[in-house]
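Homework-ish question, so no full write-ups if that breaks the rules, but can someone show me the predicted structure for this set?
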Amino acid sequence: MPELPEVQTIVDDLNKKIIGRRITDVWFDTPKIIKKPKPAELEKQIKGLKIVDVRRKGKNILVYLTNNKQPTTNDFLLLIHQKLTGHLLYGKWQIKKVSGIKYQVSSLISGSLEEKVNNYIHLIFYLDNDWQLALSDLRKFAKVLFGPKEEIENLPDLKKIGPEPLARNFDISAFQNLIKRERRKIKQVLMDQEVIAGIGNIYSDEILWQAKIHPFMPTYKLKTYQLKNLYKAMRQILQKAIKLRGTSISDFRDTGGKPGAYTEIRKVYQREGEPCNRCGTPIKRVKIGGRSAHYCPKCQSNCE
DNA sequence: ATGACGTCCTGCCTGC
DNA sequence: TGCAGGCAGGACGTCA
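A: Not a homework solution, just the prediction itself:
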């Protein structure tokens, strides 16, 4: 599932590939993904706009557009949240109607890493260079919002998101201040997008393993040295994962369809029963609020 | 304030 | 072999 490093990988790719392009057309077969405006309105409103920037806020991809007339009052924003299984792909596809509402989307690029037929592409933006930006999503949980920049930026979807863990001004004391007032288990706090942006199930497990902290540890009980370790682990692991272009457990792919390399060096996530890299103890998996947590019962035994 | 659970969705795995 | 049932999981809503 795309978390901060995976989304950053996509955003970096898009900055190389789609800046300056104009959107010439839109196709979709799953209207529920488009939360704003009304799905039928999207094409009319976005057609002709030029892509000027692509950024990330938490796990959200932000595509900034303009109509080039009066830039300050005519800027627009396309927000894409990939949720569990969404990915943005840059390529060329052909759409064939199979029946009333069924379509078949197949890649026109020979040697493409993507399978020839992609049953999960539900939304395509056509660009003025003959290429396309497609949203593929097996579970159809992804969400897309589009509108005037100010309006989208002020929606709770973006407004409520906490600070970026890798931001230069997010130092140890800023981190401590946020974390210390929490009463929940540390794993849940790390994954709460309103506390810190971009961390999900995979990286919270990895960060806690590196910091040697039990996922169930009540946050207010963390000692100062543990908070320091946690902060350091968070920055290190996220940076490393960005360098390796993310983790591909569920089915993350970059915009060219390639998996991320962090998968190879992960220490706990989906390694239940395998030996801990530090002490050899089998990795344990437990449920916490409907999510699974993976940890080493020996290295991370400091609960209670 | 916290937590537990249901919802969305579908490929995959298990068990009979 | 085949099919039913359970599971995963980010964000959000509901209820205790």
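Now go work out the reasoning yourself. Hint: The longest strand of chain A covers residues 50-57.
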